[in-house]
Amino acid sequence: MWRDATNEPGGYRGPEYWDAMVRYTDKMVGKVVGKLDELGLRENTLVIWTSDNGTYDRITSPFRGRDFQGGKGSTKDSGTWVGFIASWPGTIPAGVVSDSLVDFADVLPTLTDAAGVAIPEDLQIDGVSLMPLFAGQPRQKDAIYCWYERNGVREQASQHVRTAHHKLYADGRFYDTLADPDETQDLAADGVPPSLRTIHDSLRQTLDHHMRITRAADPIQQAKRDQHTPAKPKPKPKR
């Protein structure tokens, strides 16, 4: 059935496959958790379930009282705001829901923290451990930075930094993502309102910081710079 489905327009993307995929995912996660229970490892294992991006735009799901259209390939909430479930009986309280900012950079320090393994001091990372958040403590990260290259096209890369309430793109677009998740009203279109100037400038500062880092670490851009930088003459060996 699945092999034939890929020959149809849209492949697996249609809503007719959505229910089956969700049910199959639930089944496979259940098998993993069931095996941990069987082996007596459940209370010594942190299980994390999440997704890399939103669904295709042909999929609409009910979420918090509204229909939420998928946005795979988009930097809107519909493409980047995905579920993140952490389960660890005896360590993480069950049934707790949080709106704190989380991104995949947090996974590594979370796993090392859970395992009691120290991250090398010379390893620079942007993430922070989520274990304090799992224990009910306030979130340590106020904003997150995102870089997206659609289909790997560097020249069309999109960058933004966001809080739980606002989002600022590198090109200057500024949105209230709580009131306007579809990003239809650019708050900076006619100039940033005075009431939002502080948060806007803070996001701009954070965004500029990350953009400087990504440019410095970008091998493609570095190669382009090298093409236009005359090579320094090598010193002649002394005789």
Short characterization:
The chain is α+β, with helices and mostly antiparallel strands and 239 residues long. 31% of the residues lie in helices and 14% in strands. The chain contains seven helices and eight strands; from the N terminus they run H-H-E-E-E-H-E-H-H-E-E-E-E-H-H.
Provide the fold topology:
Layout (H helix, E strand, L loop, with lengths): L1 H4 L9 H24 L8 E4 L9 E4 L2 E4 L7 H4 L3 E4 L19 H9 L15 H4 L9 E5 L9 E5 L3 E4 L4 E3 L20 H20 L2 H9 L12
Antiparallel strand pairs: 1-4, 2-3, 5-6, 6-7, 7-8
How would you sum up this structure, described in words?
It is a single chain. This protein has 239 residues and is α+β, with helices and mostly antiparallel strands. The protein has a domain at 142-227: Arylsulfatase, C-terminal domain (2-Layer Sandwich). The chain has helices at residues 2-5, 15-38, 77-80, 107-115, 131-134, 197-216, 219-227; strands at residues 47-50, 60-63, 66-69, 84-87, 144-148, 158-162, 166-169, 174-176. The strands form three sheets. The chain has a four-stranded antiparallel sheet, with helices on one face.
